[in-house]
Amino acid sequence: MTDKVKFIEDINSGYTFKGSSIILGGAMVDKECQTNSLVKIPMKMMNRHGLIAGATGSGKTKTLQILAEQLSTNSVPVLLMDIKGDLSGIAAESPGHPKIDERHEKIGLPFDAGTSPVEFLTLSDEKGARLRATVTEFGPVLFSKILDLTDTQSGIVAVAFKYCDDKSLPLLDLKDFRKVLQWMTGEGKKEVQGEYGRMSTASTGAIIRKIVVLEQQGADIFFGERSFDVDDLIRLDENGKGMVSILRLTDIQDKPKLFSTFMLQMLAEVYATFPEEGDLEQPKLVIFIDEAHLVFQNASKALLEQIEAIVKLIRSKGVGLFFVTQNPTDIPDAVLGQLGMKIQHALRAFTAKDRKAIKLSAQNYPDSDYYDVEKLLTELGIGEALVTVLNEKGIPTPLAHTMLRAPQSRMDILVDKEINAIIKKSMIMKKYNEEIDRESAYEVLNEKIELSQQKEHQAELKKQQEKATKVTTRSRRGEKSMIEKVASSSAGKTIIREVTRGLLGALGIRTSRRRRRNRNSWF
Prior knowledge:
By secondary structure, this protein is of the alpha/beta class.
């Protein structure tokens, strides 16, 4: 039998914090909840990043919902990646249930229903304020990493960006960038090569093909204007609650390239825009990335390195990241090592591979005198989790088998009518859903190409006219020279002489006859 007294003392000392905190639930030992042994997360440590893991149906989404609504209540804005479409209920109050009351009685925490202010965002055709970014905002380095380019291809991308900067050509969307590449190896080849050196048409062709792949996953909708201002993620409502921005991604599960592109750009923009904050009493923004394996699967080495770097650095901007996935092994080790808080729901051992994964997962948690972690991972009930966080000094807390509190909001999705009502009240919908297609590199270069083609056409017409004139002149000169040529030839001279003699002879005969007639007329 476990020493429950010692366990309760350890939990209460490990999870007692001076500052404000989020209550997750009540600690459990021997599968029984110990009333009033509350498991908490210090608000000050919510920018140290975290992991929520567990098998399908184990309660990950509700845990995410609990954290988001508690952060919002404490005036911390939240961004949720809603890939399964089951987080919209945070905008509606929980109707309550006897089982919820029973759970909270065991925990020793009264249940209060509540809501959070919600803003819906979208990357695709879902309802909500549309998120966009321009190609220029990515920059050549990040854009090359997203496309997984070679060093040579990355060099061409850098030249394309430099050329557009020098010529004041706005790079807004993918068709702009594609047109620039075509210009650099087509009509503008001489101009570009003269200033920046030669570029391989094979390399530019490979880049264009990778852009087409990105477009086929819907990136042509994401790239463009108006660019989303990340400051709109850190708003408070009129009651001082943090805005919960829900990015609806239910139609993007088969487009991991677009999802990772968006995530990387947004994190890079947050890092570049937000000022250095140091250690705040609470974060400025917390981001929950559901189905996090979509960010990392099939990602290139360069892209993974970029994500790892941002995860390490963004904490100083007052931003916390929580990755939500089925198994901790879905997260690269370099990123997993940066996650100070871990909430582990049940894992299922259906195969030998599953058992091996569970053994590896158990090694991610602190050793415990009270739990056989590897065994307990397969025995956790729905709404239960193993929890370890960082205390206010950054030290990991004791591992606690926790009965999680129930969400204060509805544990179900909103219907279309309710979603439409929220969208109608949106403060940013009109701002970002306005379609803008101002003159950019595509239009400017197309105009140059048209002018170039017109000049070439006019030059060709002029050349044809000159050629026709020369032919006519030569033809006329050819006729005159032929007569002269015949006349000057020996045969021609003979003919002319004979004709002349004939004519003169005829004239002589006629003259003699006239003279004889004239003489006879005297008599």
